[in-house]
Amino acid sequence: MKWQFIEDQSSLELDILLKKQSQDEEVLKLIGLLEQFNGQKQHLIAVKVEDGIQFVALDDLIAVDVEAGHLILTSRKGTFVTRERLYQFKEKYLSDHFVQVSKQTIINVTYLERMEASFSGNMTAFLTDGYQTSVSRRYLKLLEKTLGI
């Protein structure tokens, strides 16, 4: 990693430019750290429901799945559907507790109870409240790193 500071007398605000070949986990974690530093990290997710807006505490969130173009938020208080994209969710709410385990699923490792070997090198993650999902080989190393394994 390289960094460079450029003094700009005309700029009243701190501007940060990140450049990399692709927006990977390292970039997303850095964005998350910058947001935490700036105090703008959100702790609630607002989800439009039939008769209003439901607020879901980020700490209560067990998993996030993509299904038919929607995000399914599974929390301790129920399941909610939003039209947000998975990459947008990762940008807004990324923290050390959330890890992507497949192309369509992010889990909160705080609620991870156990993992079992599955087919062709994949694992099955079992979380609180009976939630289970497949952990693909592509994302297994990241999960293991997050868990300190």
From TrEMBL:
Keywords in alphabetical order: DNA-binding
Coiled-coil stretches noted in the UniProt entry, renumbered to this chain: none
Domain of life: Bacteria
The HTH LytTR-type domain, residue ranges: 45-149
Species this protein is from: Streptococcus saliviloxodontae
UniProt protein name: DNA-binding LytR/AlgR family response regulator
Gene Ontology MF term list: DNA binding
